[in-house]
Amino acid sequence: MAVGWRKLNVGVTGGGIGGMCVAIALRRAGHEVTIYERSDFAGEVGASVSCAANGTRWLHEWDIDVAKGDPVVLKRLINRDWKTGEPISEYSLDDYEQRWGYVYNMFHRQYMHAMLKDSALGEEGKGSPAKLLVNHRCKDIDLDTNTITFENGVIAQHDLIIGADGIGSAVRNIIGIHPTRRPADQQCLHCNVMTDDAVKAGLVDYSLNEALEYWGGQEGKWDKIVLSPCNGGKLLSYYCFFPRDQGDYVNQAWGAEDRPVEELLKPYPELDRQVFGHLAIGKEIQPWRLWIHDPYPYLNKQRVCLLGDAGHPMMPHQSQGACMAIEDAAAIGILFSPAYFDGNIEQSLAVYNKVRLPRATRVQSAAAKAAYNINERIGFSNNKDLPFYKVEDQKNVLTIEEMNAYDMYRDIEEKLAAAKGSGYAGNFICGLPIGLELPNGIVIGASA
After folding, report:
1. Residue 267's closest CA among 286, 250, 244?
2. DSSP 8-state secondary structure symbol assigned to residue 434
3. In this structure, how many other beta carbons lie within 10 angstroms of the beta carbon of residue 364?
4. What pLDDT, on the 0 to 100 scale, is given for residue 438?
5. Domain presence at residue 232
6. C-alpha span between 2 and 346 (Å, rounded)
């Protein structure tokens, strides 16, 4: 145990996936956690959530019963020809668990959230169960006294405050970050298709592929269909991207009346007839507003920090948004654990900033590139021998090795040593092992 360790009373604003994850990590580290959710329930909207090995490993480290989330374990990534549906690029995940120690899970968002909520609030598990208070929307935070004032008039004081309140974060503004956002050139409609309905309609059963599947995404075009199977394959979650001039949904919110199926199909007159048939029986057609946020300058101020979309909102095209929130939560759990926390909250948050901001910003940048070039997407970015493979900068491509070989404990130890003015003798740089050769030609620790 680190000298000076003490139990903290922590307030988390936001009861989504990120908020539940950090509550789990902190209760396991020995702290008392209260989650404040702004709505009248702590839940999630949407459908699929991608959880690669760099996220799944923390679910296991936190002893979460992953089976409760009813995931699909992905076996491959498939990119299909826009018109014919024939596979033109694949990335096999057959040896994924063997290489990285954990599988690639695809969850239904509501099921994943319920799984995490059970671990955060339940009596079973390490540490004291977190508390959840709904209808608590953050109005202001006094940074000197660490006091939160909520719109319902409640006032609460905490040793540490974590803003996990999403892309529209109030906490972000309070700590002095006022992003300039702009609509993406690409917009998206989402729909759900029940696998049984597709089979009854005589359409192909994509659930059998156990794959994250893509149509398009080539040649710098915004048109792209992404299929994510979840609920054990019973539900097919479709994300349908197209140029904003074919449908602008920036002023519409998820949860309003479903859009008509004709509107979903309109941008895709030449799309492969099999997946087009799936979309034609799609339900719960909802707009997903896509905004561009430039990287933020910091994630913490005094004894307050940001987590997940509140701190680094990104485009969805690397399927890493949830994993980055999980990694944020894991970093906070480690930094405030008995082995590392010496009682200095501000120093620990400064290290959190140095650990998390560069990695999340790197994924954020790579996600923007993958919006119009699927070869930039983790996994496909390794298929550099294909004749149509082309990326903006091969040396800067984000690879599966960079994501999954990362050791957060070593990254934290390196940054903590620097913060305390002591030496670091580990064979890692920013969490990656020195000498690791990445498929993009970069060797970790080698001079340029």
Report:
1. 244
2. T
3. 23
4. 92
5. no
6. 16
Is the pLDDT score of 326 beyond 90?
Answer: yes
Question: Amino acid identity of 415?
Answer: K
> Which two three-digit tokens encode residue 47?
């459908």
Residue type at position 401: E
Residue given tokens 């979460």 in the structure block: 64
Q: Which residue has the tokens 């956690």?
A: 33
Q: The tokens 């905490």 sit on which residue?
A: 158
Contact 292, 184 (CB under 8 A): yes
- Does the residue 234 lie in any domain? no
Q: In the prediction, which pLDDT does 423 show? A: 87
Residue 186 lies in a domain: no
Give how many domains the chain has, as a whole number.
1
Query: Does residue 56 sit within a domain?
Result: yes
Q: How many CB atoms lie within 10 A of CB 179?
A: 16
* Tokens, residue 385: 């021998």
pLDDT digits (tens, 9 = 90+) for 333-380: 999 999 999 999 999 999 999 999 999 999 999 999 999 899 999 999
- The closest of 153, 226, 158, 145 to 193, measured between CA atoms, is 226
Four-CA torsion 17, 285, 249, 217, nearest 10 degrees: 80
Angle, helices 17-28 vs 321-335, to 10°: value is 20
Closest by CA to 308, choosing from 326, 292, 281, is 326
45-59 tens-digit pLDDT: 678 999 999 999 999
Distance CA 123, CA 334 (A): 22
Element (H, E) at 226: strand 224-230
**Amino acid in position 46:** G
Note down the domain range covering 312. Answer: 9-80+99-179+294-372
Q: What is the DSSP letter of 308?
A: G
CA angle 325, 248, 283 (to 5 degrees): 70
Sign of CA dihedral 390, 394, 398, 403: positive
pLDDT level of residue 259 (50, 70, 90 thresholds) = very high
Q: Please say if the pLDDT value at position 42 is more than 70.
A: no
**Per-residue pLDDT, 207:** 97
> Higher confidence at residue 226 or residue 250?
226
Matching residue, tokens 């033109």: 88
Say which residue the tokens 């957060």 belong to: 408
CATH code, domain with 67: 3.50.50.60
Per-residue pLDDT, 178: 93
Rounded distance between C-alpha atoms, residue 430 and residue 413, angstroms = 10
Task: Return the higher-pLDDT residue of 385 and 130.
Answer: 130
Closest CA to 75 of 105, 101, 53, 39: 105
With beta carbons less than 8 A apart as the criterion, state whether 55 and 25 touch: no
| Ranges 11-25, 73-87, 130-144, 279-293: which has the least confidence | 279-293
